[in-house]
Amino acid sequence: MSQFNIEEEIEEITGGEYERTPVPKKALKGWKSFLGMYAGEHAAGTEFMIGPLFLTAGVSAFDLIVGLLIGNFLAVLSWRYLTASIAIKHRLTLYYHFEKICGKKLVTAYNLANGILFCFLAGAMITVSATAVGIPFEIEMPKLTDTMPNSMTWIIIVLSIGAVISIIAGSGYDTVSKAANWMSPVIVTAFIACGIVALGQLNVSNFTDFWNIWGEGSAPFPGQTKFTFWHVVIWSWFCNAAMHIGMSDLSVFRFAKSSSSGWTTAAGMYVGHYMAWIAAALLYAVYLKTPEAQAFLTNGEAPPVAPGPLAYNAIGIFGIIAVVLAGWTTANPTMYRAGLAFQAIIPKASTFWVTILAGSIATIAGIFPAFAMKLLNFVALYGFILAPIGAIIVFDHFFAKKAGIIPFYAEKAHQSFNLSVLLAWLISFMIFYGISVQFDIFLSFVTLPAWLSCGIFYLVFSKFLQKKSYAYS
After folding, report:
1. How far apart are CA 56 and CA 67, in angstroms?
2. What's the pLDDT tens digit per position in 147-180?
3. Which residues pair with 256 in a beta bridge?
4. Which residues are within 8 A (CB) of 270 and not within 5 positions of it... i.e. 6 or more apart?
5. Nearest in space to 77 (alpha carbons), one of 278, 231, 236, 275
6. Which of 11-15, 202-206, 242-246 has the lowest mean pLDDT?
7. pLDDT tier at 181 (50, 70, 90 boundaries)?
8. Residue 233 predicted with pLDDT over 70
9. What residues does 29 pair with on adjacent strands?
10. How far apart are CA 168 and CA 104, in angstroms?
């Protein structure tokens, strides 16, 4: 059987998601498909957590409003000129693309780590949805310092939400995209409504009143990191580092007709990572004025961040619905990506069932509120670990031939383990994670240096370790 027929058979088994073949022309999608997905994914569950967490980090008005403008623009540029450009050239998933460079054995370890980290992120979004579903049951909401579930009711709610989200994600990209297109207008409307109501509750009548909500900033809440202007810029740029400079969204943009679809990420960044973060922060600002929140602060504790009650207090039942849907629209594509990671390890397995596996892991993670409550730090770590892998893909794509090395070397040399890749990632990780720990530097600050060094190390090691008997193509 020819390689083409083998891969064609795998496509039939896996449900036609093109995990190990380039996406054919007939399956390409226009920019509207990506617009809805990115608007839905990034005006979603994480936003209900991240907006309030900025307040717990003591940001100033200038740091938040201007820092987010710049950081989100840098993220859009990364998607457009790196991720989308490479995706439409090769039209491969991240996992298969990376396998061609590093070999089957090495990509298996990466896929496992990548899939698990995605599951944890999806689990945090299930936690977010659970804070809304739990309101009618009057359950105790998790605190910022909580790691364990606080009731059996909480566990049952999380398991129920996780089951529904897993089934939607397991149905494939088309279903994920359609779900996002349907849910995102509802969620965006809810964020706008929450922001407007919160402004009224805060007695904001002009821009000065709005600015003074954050003012010159404050000391961070107990147990939280103080955020400055550069924290906001760098964190907002790299909170999705795994997706853009880490190349995870090759798996998404491989369906794009042109790299211009990369600009649609601006809908996610400026509707979600700008408007929605600020609107969610306003909800938390309202809560901070309540006697309950003041009691926490008086006792030296950080008031809890529970998106469900915050939205419910602003816009009632619509707030509960919006938070539930918001958790879904982040968890759905995240589980889809995790499923692709696991499916790359077992390529003949059904996409549906590997996504159900990913959903099961995410649901178990969602039971434990720590992933949601420490989202700023978790996202920074997750991006730092995964982003440098994207540097290897970027440098292999743009600089391999200029550096005199062979692109897609593992495939051409029939290698199952490319030592250059492992050395590049491991050395970069050790150097910059060590710097972060030794000098107490926020991890997002060393993500770009680690990314660049990983790409450069890859070229250098490849120059010495590659055998030159394999032709370029």
Report:
1. 17
2. 788 788 889 988 988 888 788 777 766 666 666 6
3. 29
4. 72
5. 236
6. 11-15
7. low
8. yes
9. 256
10. 29
pTM: 0.84
- Mean pLDDT calculated for residue range 111-137: 85
Report which of 231, 227, 229 is spatially closest to residue 219, judged by C-alpha positions.
227
pLDDT score of 6 more than 60: no
Residues 6+ apart with CB under 8 A from 384: 241, 432, 433, 443, 444, 446, 447, 450
Integer Cα distance of 159 and 329 in angstroms: 17
**Lookup result for tokens 């998106």:** 307
Cα(131)–Cα(342) distance, rounded to whole angstroms?
29
Q: Which domains does the chain have, with CATH numbers?
A: 34-465 (1.10.4160.10)
What would the DSSP string read from start to end of 140-182?
PPPPTT--S---HHHHHHHHHHHHHHHHHHHT-HHHHHHHHHH
**What are the backbone dihedrals phi and psi of residue 355, each rounded to the nearest 5 degrees, phi first?**
-70, -35
Q: How confident is the model at residue 108 (pLDDT cuts 50, 70, 90)?
A: confident
